[in-house]
## 1
Amino acid sequence: MAEGKPFATPHRDRFLLLVSTPEQIEELAVESTRKHSKLSSQGIMVDTLNPEFTLNAKKEDPAGFIAPNLLKHKIRKHLSSMYLPMRWTVEDAFRKEMKGKPLGDGWSRVPLCYVANRITARMNNLLLVGENLASNPTFFESSIQFVTDATITLAFFNHIPKILYRPISFMTMNWSGGRSKAKSLLMSEISKRRSESSEEQGLYKDCMQWVIESSRDKSTEYIARQLLSLTLGGAHQQPMFAAFVLYNLCLHSEYIETLRAEIHTIRDNEFDKLNNGTPYLDSFLREVGRLNPLTNIALPRKVMSPFTFADGTYVPKHNWICVPHTPLMTLPNAYSNPETFQGFRFVDTEGNRSTSRFWDMSREFPFWGNPKTGCPARYFVSLNMKMMAIHFLESYDFRVAKQAIRPTFSYHVLEMPHPLLAIEIRARKPEA
Ligand code: HEM
């Protein structure tokens, strides 16, 4: 509707300036990746996660000191060695969490968001803190509680003046004890690892170890806070997306046969086959992301000092610049029938090659953020979501529950699955 012209929309105490032409998105992406850029993703993190209150971080602390590109490199490099523990975690997570109210004839009604939240938390913990701590039930429950407390706190912040942030967060972040319990378990594990030899430490392939290595002289408490920050960041989009994937599998039963047949071809489930040899599943995930982009803005950057685009558009300090998510994901010249769900639209006509992988980034698919950098965890998320979808397809019959609610729920910039969304499942009989 803006015909490519930038426009600003008020959002709490700032404006969001939305740009959408290829040239201005390129300018935004290039400026964001420049050293000492005027535009900051860290600034967005501080504005949205309020680490001073949710993490008890000092005001002058950087929001994260593990560089996203180092994280991306480490995750990609170690993904194949994390593959088996990831599979066991998915199986274990489904066994423990995929439960609901019995309906008779083997079916039960499952609260989708609750279950997706707990399954993905188990998977994230494996990446963040490794097998030992991730399998500790006290750590799991306290990390979930911490994320819940922080989400409630941040929701309060949307409705109260800044002067009340400290007293409110003091109550909401301390009442349950989730944060302090999770932090103390993180600190014990960090101290234990720091006392081990470099050979022993070399065996850990998780974010905790990479943060320890890149922090050297930082205190144990500071490292634990970084891991809490990653826990909070990682708990944001993945559960919402997982819920949308499971919901869309229930909704679009016409794709199930092909997806199950594809899974059959990777029966032995080798890492490389799953990572690179499932074009139909890759496409299905990408299509779910295209029509459920989770946020209605993408690539947000905070203006740290006044920024002027080449066309003269001037953006004062403190505001955010971003791109509109859904309009780009439904551009008619990039996607035919853009409003229609076509689960296999990213598979070539012979059906054996992906034309775009789920983790690929572009202007017309800003799901992973800046096309030049993007989410450092996207290879992990992609593998995770495939494993989760495969386990679901193989282990259950499923259908959408009858409900008089919209499947999505809008809150500020979020377009999330409706918190009351439910599906119905039944254990699948093993094939003869
Ligand atoms: C469906 C799931 C996810 C989506 C859609 C997603 C999306 C994004 C996006 C859009 C960005 C901003 C990138 C940019 O504009 O440059 C980002 C950054 C990031 N994500 Fe993800 N993400 C997901 C899951 C995760 C998980 C599970 C983790 C970690 C466990 C994670 C860790 C990070 C980190 C560390 C950053 C960098 C923040 C910075 O710039 O400092 N993400 N993600």
## 2
Amino acid sequence: TDMNHRVSKEIVRFAVQNKVDVIGLEDLTGIRDRTETSKKQRYTHHSWAFYELQSFIEYKAREKGISTVYVDPAYTSQTCPRCNHISKNNRHKKSFVCECCGHSLHADLIGARNIESRARTYRYTLEVQGCSQPPIRELSTR
Ligand SMILES: [Zn+2]
């Protein structure tokens, strides 16, 4: 809990410093049946600590006027953010090399960029529907 407080505080501090108004996080509530994850990832994603970290980020961000949106994380680690090609073969442990266009980057950064992209798409969808802010989710119902 102490570590999650420190990490979330740092993430929100970074967001404030860089004038970020929306933080995108993985929506992990439906991941179990839809995506293949390693046992280690599954533990990380479904652990109470990970949920707690997301909750801390969300409420600390809200205090600073920053919204949090949750996006579907399916295939974010296998999708090329440059050409959208999806393949397991794009991943080689911690490195990502797109078999289609050759784009390469650390696998964690690929996942983060795809989540950012989905968060932007989600925001855009809300905006064109006339919603200026993402709906506030009740944390207790997750
Ligand atoms: Zn590519």
